[in-house]
Design brief:
The structure holds 2 protein chains of 2 kinds.
Chain A: E1 5-15, H1 19-31, E2 37-40, E3 55-58, H2 71-81, H3 88-108, E4 129-133, H4 136-147, E5 150-152, E6 155-162, E7 170-177, E8 183-193, H5 223-230, E9 235-236, E10 245-247, H6 255-259, E11 264-266, H7 274-285, H8 296-308, E12 315-317, H9 325-338, H10 340-348, E13 360-362, E14 376-377, E15 403-405, H11 417-439, H12 448-468, H13 484-498, E16 507-508, H14 510-526, H15 535-560, E17 571-572, H16 580-583, E18 585-592, E19 597-604, E20 606-608
Parallel strand pairs in A: 1-2, 1-8, 2-5, 8-15, 16-17
Antiparallel strand pairs in A: 3-4, 6-7, 7-8, 9-14, 9-18, 10-13, 11-12, 18-19
Chain B: E1 3-5, H1 15-19, E2 25-27, E3 34-36, H2 47-51, E4 57-59, E5 71-77, E6 82-88, E7 94-100, H3 120-123, E8 148-150
Antiparallel strand pairs in B: 1-4, 2-3, 5-6, 6-7
Chain lengths: 610, 153
């Protein structure tokens, strides 16, 4: 095929129209009234990103005006949950702005539940407020559409473009329309990557029809990481993958159950197991286990140890709470608002939590930057207070000039969730507007040779299939190409077996990681031989490319950090303890796409005193 | 629970194709009706089910772990601002729930350029749009650089 090439020029290009991207669109218009602001999204921003299905809670809200929490409190909470390592400057920045975001959401029409006694937002927990959020994403998308000059839906961005005069400055992005195959060259003065984190890099527990029922959305295909990595941006904490304890098979959320419904867990014999494992955890990680709340990874660890001891299944004790009809309604609506699949699992297996305490399980690992984990790009901090080591330019600018990020893309800022991701999009956008204004007529140049070469690369999987398909009678087995699903399943198997997935109880070591890297290297070579029968599969092919590159980065980081910092997320069996003497630091990587080499380094951690 | 489409209800309008975040609802070239082309990449997010004007799309729990005989039906009413759910268990028990989805009319959000333009000094401050008013506190909190300390707490 010879696709049409379409050029789109803008001042600010936003890649990804989820929560972060919508926040970026809104804020860049507020500050940049005359700028051309373009948002590009591989699906449809009305229902795209991790919030496509809706949410039943906003997990990051301070309530400063009711004196409920201050930004420092949130920093301390996120810091202990991540075992001491978060970018406190960035986390504080989100926390100080997030209330304004949530107040806007309410003004726009998001139904936020109220406490009937106080009239304040209904708290689910210290940081969480409860919402009727089925239309959370359509509401936020409406605001973004009113702000952007144009929204391009159904365009998969594959690569960023660099300035031909200045190799470390971004100049735009390329991608293709998944409906008609048109090739897009977006030329921009600044780019904000607000793409999705990574599901489906580790083998999920269901591998048949149910493989799509992962905890994080299957369309979160690691573009948040692959795009900056390929542009030479430094990445941080990519080893800090997250494992979720959730209701079995549907991965229905447990937050409201623990915090609001006051349900609790027990082993198969009705015993509380978390207290049982506390002393052994303290021997591994020290004092972090003694803070309240106990870090997410350590609670996972206790559950995993209990299962290994043969006292599973672990159950959530719901029978008492569900006698209260209000709590029963909250319990079900919680799923219907954000994980309908869990309601289906329970309906299909006749599980009524009034009568049966449902089972819990742990998910496969995910890599993302907005939940109880903080993988992502290394970004400059806020101008007014960030330590010098964390500041080299504009807020949320990566180590590539003109390249900004938000949401899953930015590392070090755990617990931002939906409201924090939107807020981070706003922070990045204001900085990007400033960057564009400061640079005036000094615009980056896109090289024709660069995008022409990329165009050939992008459509190659269609060509591989067209030619290879004639070699065989039919079916899926070819000696010349593999299909995107084949590549995905190989990736998931490598990551599962060598990098600490479910089949090894999240355990790995240096020899396993080294072997994993060899196999990932061969998979990377095979990606030149992906065959795509149609444009939909071409999208899958490029999602796979992004996932593989992000996985290699995760593996390199896991190899570099010689300790077990987050038991319950993963274990380095050759370094089984937390080591604050040598590893109380961030891990940073930089990929050289011409040599395929990863350069690793440590960066200091700064704490707000106390 | 992957989605599927009832042959007699679907009129091929393509709303589901337009909305699906996973790009798996396609129009079958022979029948000119929608189908799920990749059930193992379905997140069961119900975006297509809610968008279908003919109520032609339903779900059947993933064969890996969901026994047959259940159903979860939904009716999303934009204008009324509600969403209604009916859950039917394998053994026939039913549960019904209704929730609000929006408190303001669709399309009523005030875009950022409808507010008066920010001043140059605001541009160089740390304030974001509508701050500090939207924070509902007097001033945006800040920190002193000296409060940051390197090393273990």
């Amino acid at each position: 095929m010879s696709p049409k090439t379409i050029f789109v020029d803008s001042d600010i290009l936003i890649v990804g129209g989820g929560m972060g991207g919508c926040g970026a669109a809104y804020e860049s218009r507020y500050w940049g009234r005359d700028l051309k602001i373009v948002c590009v999204e591989k699906a449809n921003i009305e229902r795209s990103g991790a919030v496509a299905q809706g949410l039943y809670a906003i997990n990051c809200y301070m309530g400063m005006h009711w004196n409920e929490n201050q930004p420092e409190d949130h920093v301390r909470y996120a810091r202990n949950d991540l075992m001491g390592l978060v970018r406190e400057d960035l986390g504080y920045d989100i926390a100080r702005h997030v209330d304004a975001t949530v107040h806007k959401f309410e003004e726009w029409g998001l139904p936020i539940m109220k406490d009937p006694k106080t009239g304040r937002y209904q708290r689910e927990g210290k940081w969480q407020i409860m919402i009727h959020g089925e239309s959370y994403k359509p509401i936020v998308a409406e605001a973004a559409r009113k702000a952007a000059s144009a929204v391009y839906n159904r365009i998969m961005v594959t690569h960023l473009l660099m300035d031909s005069k200045h190799p470390n400055r971004v100049a735009g992005a390329v991608g293709f329309n998944v409906r008609n195959g048109d090739f897009y060259v977006f030329r921009a003065k600044a780019v904000i990557v607000a793409a999705g984190g990574a599901s489906h890099i580790f083998k999920p527990r269901a591998v048949g029809e149910g493989m799509g029922r992962t905890w994080y959305a299957p369309w979160s295909s690691a573009s948040a990481y692959a795009l900056p990595i390929l542009a030479g941006a430094k990445m941080t904490q990519m080893e800090n993958r997250i494992v979720l304890t959730r209701f079995k098979d549907g991965y229905g959320p447990v937050g409201a159950y623990f915090l609001h419904l006051k349900t609790y867990t027990q082993n198969a014999y009705g015993q509380d197991y978390e207290a049982f494992w506390r002393d052994s955890i303290e021997k591994m990680v020290g004092d972090y286990v003694n803070h309240h709340p106990v870090p997410t990874c350590l609670r996972n660890h206790a559950l995993l140890e209990e299962l290994k001891a043969g006292r599973g299944p672990i159950r959530m004790v719901t029978k008492e709470a569900f006698k209260d009809p209000h709590k029963e309604t909250v319990g079900w609506e919680n799923f219907l608002g954000m994980t309908v699949g869990q309601a289906v699992v329970w309906a299909s297996q006749n599980i009524d939590p009034k009568e049966i305490n449902p089972e819990l399980t742990t998910s496969e690992p995910y890599v993302m930057g907005s939940h109880a984990t903080c993988s992502g790009a290394w970004a400059s901090g806020p101008e007014d207070y960030a330590p010098a080591d964390y500041q080299w330019g504009y807020n949320r600018m990566m180590t590539v000039e003109g390249l900004f990020g938000a949401g899953d893309t930015i590392g070090g800022t755990a617990h931002k969730f939906s409201s924090g991701s939107f807020t981070e999009g706003r922070i990045a956008a204001k900085a990007a507007v400033k960057y564009v204004m400061d640079h005036g007529t000094d615009s980056p140049q896109v090289s024709e040779a660069e995008y022409t070469e990329l165009k050939k690369t992008i459509y190659q999987p269609l060509e591989n299939y067209r030619i290879g398909r004639n070699e065989i009678v039919g079916g899926t087995v070819s000696p010349s190409y593999i299909l995107p699903l084949h590549g995905l399943q190989r990736l998931e198997k490598i990551m599962d077996e060598y990098v600490g997935g479910i089949s090894s109880h999240y355990t790995t070591n240096e020899p396993l990681l080294t072997r994993g890297l060899e196999l990932l290297g061969m998979l990377k070579e095979d990606l030149a031989h992906i065959g795509a029968p149609d444009l939909h599969q071409l999208q899958r092919a490029w999602e796979l490319q992004h996932r593989v590159l992000a996985s290699e980065c995760v593996t390199q980081h896991t190899l570099f950090r010689q300790e077990t910092r987050w038991p319950g997320y993963y274990y380095r069996a050759d370094h089984p303890k937390l080591d604050d003497k040598d590893w109380h630091c961030f891990t940073l990587s930089r990929y050289d796409k011409s040599t395929g080499h990863w350069e690793m380094e440590k960066a200091p951690v700064y704490h707000i005193i106390d | 629970m992957p989605t599927f489409v009832y042959m007699t209800n679907c009129d091929g309008c393509g709303y589901c194709v337009d909305i699906c975040p996973s790009d798996i609802m396609h129009i079958d070239p022979t029948y000119r009706r929608a189908l799920n082309v990749e059930p193992n990449m379905c997140w069961e997010c119900f975006s297509c089910v809610k968008a279908c004007p003919q109520h032609a799309i339903d779900v059947r729990g993933y064969a890996d772990f969901a026994p047959l005989g259940h159903s979860v039906r939904v009716l999303r009413e934009d204008e009324k601002g509600t969403i209604s759910w009916r859950i039917k268990f394998r053994d026939g028990r039913e549960k019904n729930f209704v929730s609000p989805i929006r408190t303001t009319p669709w399309g009523s959000i005030k875009g950022p350029s409808e507010y008066s333009a920010p001043t140059a000094s605001a541009m160089h401050s740390q304030a974001l749009a509508h701050e500090p008013e939207a924070l509902k506190v007097e001033a945006l909190p800040t920190l002193a650089r000296t409060r940051f300390k390197k090393g273990v707490v």
